[in-house]
Amino acid sequence: MRRSLALRSLRNRLAFLFFAITAAAIAALYLYLAPQLQSRLRAEKLRSLQATAVNGIAPIRTAVAVTFEPDKQLKRTVARVSDRANARVTLLRVPRSGGEPQLDPTDPAADSATANPLFFPTATDAARTARTASGSESSAEGPVAEVAIPLRVKGELGYVAVFSTPMADVERNVAVIRKQILIAGAIALVIAVLAGWFSARAISQRVKRLEKAAEQVAAGDFSTPIPVDSDDELGQLAVAFNDMQAQLAQFDRARKQFIATASHELRTPLFSLGGFVELLEDEELDEETRRRFLAQVRQQVERLRKLSVDLLDLSRLESGSLELRPEPVDLSELARSVSSEFEPVLAQHDSRLEVRLASRPVEALCDPVRVAQIMRILIDNALTHTTPGTDVIVSATRDDGFARLAVADHGSGIERASLSRIFEPFYTSDDAQGSGLGLAIASELAERMNGRLGVESRPGRTVFTLELAEGLGQGPRLRGESSPEARSRAWKATP
User: Fold this and answer.
1) How far is it, in rounded angstroms, from Cα 454 to Cα 371?
2) Average pLDDT for residues 226-237, to the nearest whole number?
3) Is 369 helix (H, G, I), strand (E, B) or coil?
4) Phi, psi values for residue 466, rounded to 5°
5) Is 290 in the same domain as 331?
6) For residues 418 and 51, what is the distance between their CA atoms, to the nearest angstrom?
7) What's the Cα-to-Cα distance from 420 to each of 117, 461, 479, rounded to whole Å?
8) Strands 392-399, 402-409: parallel, antiparallel or unpaired by DSSP?
9) Checking DSSP bridges between strand 392-399 and strand 353-357, what pairing results, if any?
10) Do 336 and 310 belong together in one domain?
11) Predicted TM-score (pTM) above 0.90
């Protein structure tokens, strides 16, 4: 169990990874590079010996050119060539009957041959092919490089001169290199493990900070951002986490604000309903007062119904479960139909609603039910937030491949500080009525239909404009994306 926990540790796993990579690199050097170096050094030693043999064979070739029988002069010549070449020179006689070359008993190397016997396989190859042969053979003192040169006497193959030199220096050099690789590898392993462990420790501490911050966020504490101490991936993750934390804090504030607003909006009509119910239970209540109380009850019930519908629509929009059914719709006819629904409210508000439509049908690809809902929200918003007697203008126009519905009023306008936030869910200004859900729902519905809902306001004039694509193939426009020219045209279209 303890071993399993140790392997799960990021610090230990990274340290082990550093160790494994370094060990693999050392093993590759030891098992691949060292043998390759040894092979190259041996080949270089053999090439050097071959060049020495070719350059130094001339005196021996001259000495044996006239006789098959060795003499003292030949022995001295072989000794001089051996000293000059700094290599062992062995003269082997080839029997006239053919066969394996035989060591000449008068050869200067004959005495040492018994102490360090060599078989000279290269001499056999040179005698058989009558060509220079090179190679190596093993001895008690290690590998020996050999170059065998055939020598002719009176036109016949008489001797084979073998130049040989031990390759113990090559083996010693390779052994030193192997030892250095092991020593350097051991040091590198220690450094890699320590560097990996400390690096992993620093990374794990940063990850631990993220873990603690995530636990704080899970507990509902959004007040402590993570310090961003680098620009690497973890630093970018910390930035993203802080952004997420800020958004969650904003959502949490919005949720609390919504709960407070919804509680207030629900509490007021519920208390009012409770009071009216108690009053209606009075048997001595006259008929006119009873009718007035019943009208107030109906008003409060309608307020509760609207609030519950808004909450349901917002919940469905946020969860993505609201289904839209786009189809070609005549916005002029839709604007006229929705505007007619507000005649009783306009009469109570002592206001007039004017519908201005283009000469031709204004068609758009949208969900007619949801566009009608947006229109109701905008007209109701204009009547709710203006003083009685304020006129409202509804218009439908088309321009630049887009259809536009606009609702304008000549009220006091929207404060500049509130103008940029009126489409936020749950936002209400200080003197505003309602829960602040209507415009947020309208804006979200517009964007879901690849459109946008914009607003222009100044004292004495406020215009909400719904912009929708006339047909298929139009891309979505985000809030505030339309050009200044388009906004100016929409503004002028609703005087």
Assistant:
1) 14
2) 78
3) helix
4) -100, 120
5) no
6) 96
7) 102, 16, 11
8) antiparallel
9) parallel
10) no
11) no
